[in-house]
Amino acid sequence: MKFFLLASAGGALGAGARYLVNVGMGRLLGTSFPWGTLTVNIVGSLLMGILIEALSLKFGGSLEARTFLATGVLGGFTTFSAFSLDVAVLASRGETGLAFLYVAVSVLAAIAMLYAGMAMTRWVLT
């Protein structure tokens, strides 16, 4: 239960930060392109890299800290950062082919399922 609460609290902070970035980027650059999402995906991945290395190299990386910061805050900020970490872990294990497969399947399946969900909803509601 403790880890659930840590992840949830961190997730609330991350989601709030994502909202603020989306609003800020919309005001700064307009809303005709998803600048906010692009920004949180890139910045979140950078922060995940910094966090994971700092926790492991300098701060001892307790499971509580990782759950709150990586799963919670950065997971709430962008799940793309967790995806990026998964790819890096696979690649660091020498499983490069599996890393590329994971990227391809994740991106293509997610987009396909988005369209499938939209189509099913239109079918049910119209």
Describe this protein's structure.
Helix content is 87%, strand content 0%. It is mainly alpha-helical. The protein is globular. The protein has helices at 2-29, 35-57, 63-77, 79-92, 96-125. It contains 5 helices and no strands.
Write the layout of secondary structure elements.
Elements: H1 2-29, H2 35-57, H3 63-77, H4 79-92, H5 96-125
Helix pairs in contact: 1-2, 1-3, 2-3, 2-4, 3-4, 4-5
Question: Care to give the gist of this entry?
Answer:
With 126 residues, the protein is mostly helical. It contains five helices and no strands.
Keywords:
mainly alpha; 126 residues
Kindly state the number of beta strands. Answer: 0
Oligomer: single chain
H-E string: HHHHH
Shape by Cα distribution: globular
- Which stretches of 5+ consecutive residues score pLDDT under 50? none
**Biggest β-sheet strands, sense, barrel:** none
Question: What share of the residues lie within helices?
Answer: over 70%
Provide the residue-averaged pLDDT: 91
Please compute the radius of gyration using only Cα atoms: 17 Å
Please state the structural category: mainly alpha
Distance between the termini: 42 Å
What's the tally of helices? 5
Strand percent estimate: under 5%
